[in-house]
């Protein structure tokens, strides 16, 4: 994934990067191997020129308090990766503040391609689903689901049943649970006690 590690100087590159992740990002020793396996390029980045400025951006500009949970983002470029995605959400109608809230709630948004992921999913959300943009502000994880394998099929099933489910309920559930919820909404044959249990489970998953 990152062959440059084999030739990177230990004392001036590898060791400073590891020290930075442990002391300033507060990645635990237990979690460090997992972070580096996921994004080994972190080890090749200059602390002063890249890693620390990116950390400050995520903390001060976006408002992410615990960057250790998304430490892999530190290998990304603020100018070519983060800013263009913030600008994209502003172009499609979100305020800068709301866009930052979305990225704070779901930092992985920074990793998604605008052309291949964000744009087609947003267009489907607005044009085909006709839903309110505020739903995306509350549930930006929408963009993490496959458009063809999860979003479209489940939305069409809801349309066929004449049911409108919240985005988390529609997308997060396993297939069997999703179908059960559709049935609960479409039939009154299920005993009241069972319907209450299903609805309670739905609310528990959301919160």
Automatic annotation (TrEMBL):
Pfam families: mTERF (PF02536). One of its GO terms (molecular function) is nucleic acid binding. GO terms for biological process: DNA-templated transcription termination. Keywords: Transcription, Transcription regulation, Transcription termination, Transit peptide. InterPro entries: MTERF, MTERF_sf. SMART domains: Mterf (SM00733). The keyword Transcription applies. Coiled coil: none annotated. Belongs to the mTERF family. This is Uncharacterized protein. It comes from Solanum commersonii.
